[in-house]
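User: Transferase family-domain-containing protein, Truncatella angustata:
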Amino acid sequence: MNRHDIQNSNNDSQDETAAHESDRVLRLPESDSCASSDLLQGTGASRNTGKSQDIMSEFVLKLKLVHPLSYIDQSVSRKYVRRMFIFDFPVVNETTINEATSAIRNGVAVALKHFPFLTGMLGPANHDEKDNVLLRYGHIDELRQIRDETFKTRVHKGSELIDLGGYDHLSRVGMPTSCLNMQDYCATDPEWTMPRWIPVFAMQANFLEDGALILCLEFQHSVADGFSIGMFLSILSLGIRGALTIDSVPKYDDCDIDSTFENHILELQEISKTDTFPEWDFRNFKLPPRKQVDSHIVTMSAKTVAEMKRRITIHIHDHFPDEDRWVSSIDCICAMLWVYISRARLLEGDSTTIFTTAVNARGKFIDEVVKSYFGNMFTTVSLRTKARHIVPKPSYDKLSPRKRILPPVELGEIAEVAANIREELELIDQDYVLQRMARLATLTKPTEAAVAAQRACRPAETGVRFGSLVKFGADVPFGIPGTTGDGTARFCRKPWMRDEGMINLLPRKGGTKGDADWEILLCLPDKTISALLKEDELGQFVEKHVHDNDPSKHGKRRTTRPGGRSINLIGTEKVLF
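Assistant: Predicted structure for Transferase family-domain-containing protein:
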């Protein structure tokens, strides 16, 4: 694959004085049209949607403050982003549950005091000329309290997991979570969807009688990305441990991103209308129906990934001795996944395949306040190439003419893809991010960007969408009473992920350092997974694989398939994989 076979993506996360806690917080006038029947438009006739919707609708009318949402915030899918943190909790009785619940509740109270807008509600901005959403929250303590509908605890009988083998079995095979019933483990209700007004944040502490605690946190994606969730977890854990209290927690320094960079964005808007952004395709043609597929968690050892990175680095230095080029462990994993998934799909040579990865953009800005921004502050990098550059022409089995046989993957193929991914990532700067924000600012329906991303990448057909969560959650010292170990979660999961072609690196102890295993969440059809995990494909590097299917979607019981064989990387330098 030649360098120009990949197109450069550069062309193409109290009292009345509370109202003044940030100069950028907007206070709605009493006569604001949103504070009337217009506000509840789209809430779905509360009498028909149950008591909880009635309560929430009444609550919204009391909220006087508006938290600013950026162009990026407005553009993302309006759904809940969920994270699960799972702990061994060996003694489950009234005393231990009460102690743990009290500590967790204290942590939530501290975190919500620090981020008061997370006590608010998200709903349609009906007075806005665009299809935007509005985040409203309270101006007094009474309206910022933990509410029963957004913080819940539940004790699960041991019999609930008996068909799944119990907690011990689930943890032994790799802790799948999509097999758990969402309604039982989440605080939110399935009916809490736009255009109703819905809570920005919710959390449920689940105590399993057979020895576990599962925290399920939910954030509206319009308000938080992965980095933001990491910020919340940091404050939450300090509150749980008592290192911060309601009285000692500092004030979060809010930032209105759009206003901060308004002049830059306005200057770029006219240019952005004609610019081509490879991560988006705004042409008006229908996509094939999105397929919901099962999740799979595959595990690679730290030793395997380190050896892979070492060999790729040597190859790059040998072929580019005069250039100061480098790759990260994640670059190498991305390259392997893109190549091997393309092979598993048996893409035709003329097919275009696109790899898209989300990138935390905070560090690309000079302004320090952006670096601690709570909200969506990410951008995307897209690389595209013809499938023939990463999927060689197959031969055919003489006994089974329909069976295509691919030659082994060569080290150089993976190394070149990894190097190109790194090169594109290095091109990201403040202007790169602002150009994309300027394009988002031109959209009347901001969520068209999410559809345009699907249209450009085609993750259900030939593309791969990647996101890394390795630094967000695994090292958080929760210190919850009754849990064992060092206070961190035993497992960190992104549950009920079913979007085909979506790949996530799950949170990992040590982030990108240390000797913890690397866990990869794959959303691919069973046929693709079977081909991907063959012994002579990606499977040769996989230590464990668990099929994390949702029985409610299939009407059948979840199955698991643990691995456990040793990995041997000794071989010729030409054929590494």
